[in-house]
Design a protein that fits this description.
Layout: H1 3-18, E1 21-25, H2 28-66, E2 71-72, H3 73-78, H4 82-96, H5 104-112, H6 115-131, E3 135-139
Antiparallel strand pairs: 1-2, 1-3
Length: about 140
């Protein structure tokens, strides 16, 4: 990973850890698989009525499995594939503009020392997380 992308990713991790941001990435595919599998098994066991019952039970089970899985945002960010990290870097770098830094520590100090810049970077990070990752955001524990 390019050093500047790594620096920005560390900045995003630091900001999200500072604000205790947690996110739940929606796993609709997992829920759909559970619902579909339950409907299939219900159909095998009880025919047409079993499809309806299996689908209903599977839908509830799938919804339960995919809800409330909040994880710290830094953990999510470090697991992003390189292409998504580059996209986030591009969004954040647009805000940083002509800001010059030597390493991640200096970048974090520069942003944390400027409340306006800190708010802009945090807003861009949250915008990326909610729109691109389709995640639900929560603050604190």
């Amino acid at each position: 990973m390019a050093p500047r992308i790594d620096d920005v990713m560390r900045l995003c991790c630091e900001l999200s850890a500072h604000d205790q941001i947690k996110v739940a990435v929606k796993s609709s595919a997992k829920g759909a698989a559970v619902a579909g599998g339950s409907a299939f098994v219900g159909g095998l066991l009880a025919g047409p009525a079993g499809i309806a019952v299996g689908g209903a039970v599977g839908g509830l089970l799938g919804s339960w499995l995919t809800s409330g899985q909040f994880r710290p945002l830094p953990q999510i960010l470090m697991e992003l594939p390189p292409k998504q990290q580059e996209q986030l870097y591009s969004n954040i770098n647009h805000i940083l503009g002509n800001l010059n830094w030597m390493d991640a520590a200096q970048l974090i100090a520069l942003v944390m020392g400027n409340a306006t810049l800190q708010q802009q970077v945090t807003a861009a990070l949250l915008n990326y997380v909610t729109k691109e990752l389709r995640a639900e955001v929560r603050y604190g524990d």
